[in-house]
Design brief:
The complex is a heterodimer of chains A (391) and B (194). By secondary structure, chain A is of the alpha/beta class. Chain A has 2 domains: 4-87 and 209-259 and 292-349, D-Maltodextrin-Binding Protein, domain 2; 90-207 and 274-288, D-Maltodextrin-Binding Protein, domain 2, CATH 3.40.190.10. Chain A has 16 helices and 15 strands. Chain A has helices at 17-24, 27-30, 43-51, 63-69, 96-104, 114-124, 139-149, 168-173, 186-192, 218-223, 225-242, 248-256, 265-273, 303-317, 325-328, 334-341; strands spanning 4-10, 33-39, 57-61, 79-88, 90-95, 129-133, 158-162, 179-183, 196-201, 210-217, 275-277, 284-286, 291-292, 363-365, 372-374. Chain A has a 6-stranded mixed β-sheet, with helices on both faces. The termini of chain A are far apart. The relative contact order of chain A is 0.17. Chain B is α/β, with parallel strands linked by helices. Chain B has 2 domains: 5-132, D-Maltodextrin-Binding Protein, domain 2 (3-Layer(aba) Sandwich), CATH 3.40.190; 134-193, Winged helix-like DNA-binding domain superfamily/Winged helix DNA-binding domain (Arc Repressor Mutant, subunit A, Orthogonal Bundle). Chain B has a 5-stranded mixed β-sheet, sandwiched between helices. Chain B is elongated and about 75 Å long. The termini of chain B are far apart. Classes of the chains: A alpha/beta (391), B alpha/beta (194). The A-B interface holds A 41-45, 48-49, 52-54, 72-76, 134-137, 161-164, 166-167, 170-171, 174, 176, 317-318 and B 38-40, 57-67, 69-72, 79-81, 83, 91-92, 95-96, 100, 102.
């Protein structure tokens, strides 16, 4: 079989692992494709490379294709999120100044309880807190806003600024931002640099949030169904491989290579295993499912997740004229997922939507093979999001 | 309506910034400002109320620009990346050249085009120079590694320089690898053993 080369843009982050593993561990080759992985300097650059046809597919923040469908931001080429590439994987952290203030009042940095963290932050702040995030349309922003609105920090208590993660340490030192929310390895890098301490994993706010998606242009997905299928299967199998504990040290080594993340494998290992070092004092915290690439139908692009994101974007930026969450949510392509991943032997959920936040314990659900268990997806405040109630 | 366009160039490298400014001023009637430091980028840009913002596509601070495209951003006038229908080809050319342009909403393509043509030409040139420089640096580094590998072989096997190189080249050909890669492997291995 002749190998077809597909170009795929990505940001050098731990959650780009499925793409890197698909190429390096032969899952791409097994599908007769080879991935030309192109690292990008910024999310705008990833989006533009994809929108203007420089690459065939991309590792993308899950809210970006939804924002584009809502005419938010600079570019409006229709994109499709054909699968979720990773669930969870962000950290919220504070700079040195806030860290000291929190310690002074006896806060224990449990790295688990968003209510306790909010209480501690609220009593040490003097005004609104400025958080640096990598991009205006990101799960980082949505998790922060959700957390603030649901605690005594208050929806008005936060200012959000875009700061590229490599510049976050500088922005903290210069006082441009007080705190941050970033994807790994950048949180661990901040800890190593002594720039601050980690407060919460993103999963403490929402236990099962779609973080990155595998995205293509919608027209490409329609006109290249064969290539798309091969790409999706290769990435899906890479995710399954990553879900095996014995794969993780190999994965850390792969990702740490100079051409990929160029960060020590020990730092990458923290996110992959969920064994986080949260401060320069070396305090250790263990997080269950810090990042998930496979289990519990993690890669299924639930329409209800898309609707949740669309609803949050609409309330933050104003809904475009004729805004129809139902139509916007279709950028999460459950149809293509079913069509192309049915043959992998992976189990497909029977439904395309769920009540987000309603699964408190592992729950068997109706599926193609009848063996699918969904994992807890609760919000920390125990509210639920019913996708049929959004109008 | 025919007042001068205001262009802001975001570029840290001073020499490169001057080159872009000179090119723009020489060919188009516009006011050009340069912003070099990323801190408070959106605020600094807003202070100039520009019609067009140009930024290197590889500049990581580009994501800070995205805030300008939101209605709630610090600029009163909404900004879009340059993608209007008539100018679709131009946007693609810009991306190929490595420049991204943010344009105030409602500015007509005829007014944007001359500035963009100049910017595209200039950025293409810079990109080409940068690629050539990277290529040269790589070639230089490879030669250094090959020289070290040759030296190791000469010492270990008592070969002269030509014979050492011939051996490297034969090994590379037999294994279907590049001479530089074989040399690199040899240098690494001898480092481990030594």
């Amino acid at each position: 079989m002749k190998t077809v080369s597909l170009s795929v843009a990505y940001m050098p982050l731990v959650d780009a692992a499925p793409l890197i593993v698909a190429q390096e561990m032969g899952f791409a080759q097994a599908e007769g494709i080879s991935l030309d992985l192109i690292p990008a300097p910024s999310w705008s650059s990833v989006r533009d490379m994809l929108a203007f046809g420089r690459v065939d597919a991309a590792h993308l923040l899950s809210p970006i294709p939804i924002a584009m469908a809502m005419q938010l931001g600079g570019v409006a080429t229709p994109l499709s999120a054909v699968s979720v590439m990773s669930v969870n994987g962000n950290v919220i952290g504070v700079g040195r100044v806030l860290e000291e203030a929190l310690r002074a009042q006896g806060y224990g940095f449990d790295f688990a309880d968003p209510f306790a963290a909010a209480r501690a932050l609220a009593s040490s702040r003097t005004g609104p807190l400025t958080f640096g995030v990598p991009f205006p349309f990101s799960m980082h922003v949505e998790l922060l806003r959700y957390w603030f609105a649901a605690t005594e920090l208050g929806a008005e208590g936060i200012e959000i600024r875009t700061v590229p993660p490599p510049l976050m340490a500088n922005a903290l030192a210069a006082g441009d931002v007080d705190a941050f929310c970033v994807g790994e390895p950048w949180g661990s890098v901040a800890v190593e640099q002594g720039a601050g301490a980690l407060l919460l994993p993103g999963s403490a706010i929402w236990k099962f949030s779609p973080e990155k998606v595998l995205a293509t242009r919608t027209d490409w997905a329609e006109t290249e169904p064969d290539l798309l299928g091969r790409l999706m299967r290769a990435v899906w199998r890479a995710g399954r491989w990553l879900a095996q504990p014995q794969s993780l040290s190999t994965a850390s080594e792969l990702l740490s290579r100079k051409i990929y993340l160029d960060v020590s494998s020990e730092l990458i290992d923290r996110a992959l295993t969920g064994q986080m070092t949260i401060s320069s004092r070396g305090e250790q915290r263990v997080v269950d499912r810090f990042v998930e690439f496979h289990a519990g139908a993690a890669t299924f692009p639930w329409r209800s997740q898309a609707k949740w994101i669309a609803g949050r974007l609409a309330s933050a930026h104003g809904a475009p004229e004729g805004f129809d969450p139902e139509a916007v949510a279709k950028v999460f392509r459950t149809d293509l997922y079913r069509r192309h991943l049915g043959s992998t032997g992976g189990d497909l959920p029977g439904a395309s939507e769920k009540v987000e936040g309603s699964i408190r314990v592992e729950m068997p659900v109706a599926s193609a093979n009848g063996a699918l268990t969904l994992l807890p997806d609760t919000f920390f405040d125990r509210r639920v999001f019913d996708p049929t109630a959004l109008g | 309506m025919n007042s001068k366009l205001t262009v802001v160039v975001v570029e840290e490298d001073r020499d490169r910034a001057i080159g872009i400014v000179d090119a723009l001023k020489a060919s188009d009637d516009c006011d050009v400002f340069v912003i070099g430091n990323a801190s408070g980028l959106a605020r600094k840009i807003a202070a100039h109320a520009p019609d067009i913002v140009l930024i290197d596509i590889d500049n990581p601070t580009r994501d800070m620009m995205e805030e300008l495209t939101l209605a709630s951003g610090p600029l009163d006038r909404p900004v879009a990346m340059f993608v209007s229908g008539a100018a679709g080809g131009l946007a693609q050319a810009a991306i190929e050249a490595g420049v991204s342009a943010y344009v105030v909403d409602g500015l007509s393509p005829e007014r944007i085009k001359p500035v963009m043509d100049t910017a595209i030409a200039r950025f293409s040139m810079v990109r080409q120079m940068r690629n050539e420089l990277a290529e040269m640096r790589r070639a230089l580094e490879e030669r250094k590694v090959i020289d070290r590998a040759k030296g190791l072989l000469m010492k270990a096997k008592g070969l002269d320089e030509d014979a050492a190189y011939a051996l490297l080249r034969k090994t590379a050909m037999d294994q279907g690898r590049r001479v530089a890669d074989v040399a690199e492997a040899l240098v690494t291995a001898s480092g481990l053993l030594g």
